[in-house]
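The instructor's notes for this session suggest beginning with a concrete chain rather than abstract definitions. Hand out the sequence below and ask the class to guess, before any prediction is shown, which regions might be ordered.
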Amino acid sequence: MRTRILVAALAVVLLLAGCSSGGTRDDGRIVLRFQSLAWQQESVEATRELVAEWNAAHPDVRVDYVQGSWDSVHDQLLTSFEGGEAPDIVHDASDDLADFAYGGYLADLTGLLSERLRADIPPRGWETVTFGDGVYGVPFLQEPRVLIANATWLKKSGVRIPTPEHPWSWDEFRRVTKRLGGGGKYGIAWPLKEPVSATLNLSLSAGGRLFHRGADGKVTVRFEEGDEVVPRTVHEQVNTDRSASPGTLGSGGSDTLPGFFAGRYAMVPLGFSYRQQIVQQAPEGFDWQVLPAPAGAGGLTQGVSPQTLSIAEDCAHKEEAAAFLDFLLRPENTVRLALGDWMLPTGRTALADPALRTAEHGWATGTALAGRLRPAPAQTVRGYPEWKDKVATPALQEYYSGAIGLDELRERLEEDGNLVLARYQR
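After discussion, reveal the predicted structure:
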């Protein structure tokens, strides 16, 4: 027992030592620690290659690559920030930044970023990382939600194939999935283990916004007509039409792929980056295609929370860290990162690269949707992580499964949700 305790204690010491922030070595060389959340093999390789290229060209400012994980990044960062052990350069997503920015853990980048970088990313991108009067990250990769479809199944059915120029409406989408289903098969499989971001972001297409900021700056939740369209569509597909698989509601996106390949569902709504897994895992000869998500009163508009790069407030060498970000996010380098992650760049120059506009694997469909991506509805809402975990996730899961009705969903999102948010807005 004593041996196990000593080993555990040593592991904690080593972990803390490994998480210590960068600084200046005895030889005068600056060392910056960059925690990356790249996880797909191509993405990790591209990121590591760029770090190595920076180090080769900047011997006096070394960047150390540290591998992080999306699964635990919020809690891990919070612990490291509070313990003064945060990495100098932080990879995250914009919808996770609000509490860190308002908490003083992230540096305001307003005076640190190059004019080239600021001008290349559209204002709607900067909105996702602006909190109060400060800019607390650089949005660099983003992905729309799309429909991945069994092309052979759709062609045989004779349904109209949507395009970004002529998408399905939400009503037409429901009719199509009903037509595609039957005989133990389903027109759609919704992987809604994490239902909140999918629901909120797609609801922008129907005119939903859910979060409303008053003149006093405080946010309240109002579940209005536009907010009902997407959850009601899913609910009816599962519980009324029987055109959506009830068994996938508690699944993650990757969990639906075996059934998709086996012909149990005609379509799966997924993030754009899932195309890489499909290319790697699809059986030989499996014909698939990328379709735009349905459109409503807001057209093809949908919310996104771009991947971001921030600098810790405790970083002792902010200008050098900003110079590394400028290098990493040069257009040609951003294209490499986008291809590695199978996502879209936020920058205009990189997005125009021909490599991201080919018909192969649906790249052209994704880039056609890029101009309709907007900041996710919860982007600047303090307390959103708690609201999502304690209120919205269980309420939406119960509604989609048919356990509660629309009125109870509205009541829980609004009444319980506003109680949570109020604690962050006093």
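Then share the key points. Residues 1-21 have pLDDT under 50 and may be disordered. The first strand starts at residue 23 and ends at 24.
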